[in-house]
Fold:
Amino acid sequence: MTEIIHYDKFDKVIKVGDCVVFPNQNQLEIGIVKKITPKMIKVNQIGFTYNSQKYPKDTIVLEGPEVTMFLLKHQK
Structure:
């Protein structure tokens, strides 16, 4: 079985556990990638328990110390 590789809007590789920003209705939300499927990725929005399915090109991988501080502040 081959490994599924998806790329975000900026052509960065998306991995399970990555922090991503994605559209939700008319807002941008921040979430964690929980699962990668052949067509989409499952993202758990910060502060919620359910997963949303998003197309990889609709997301952007976030990195850096600002993301770490946001996650530490907003996790339950």
Summary: Residues 6-74 form a domain with the SH3 type barrels. fold (CATH 2.30.30.140). DSSP finds one helix and seven strands in the chain. The first strand starts at residue 6 and ends at 7. Helices lie at 65-74.
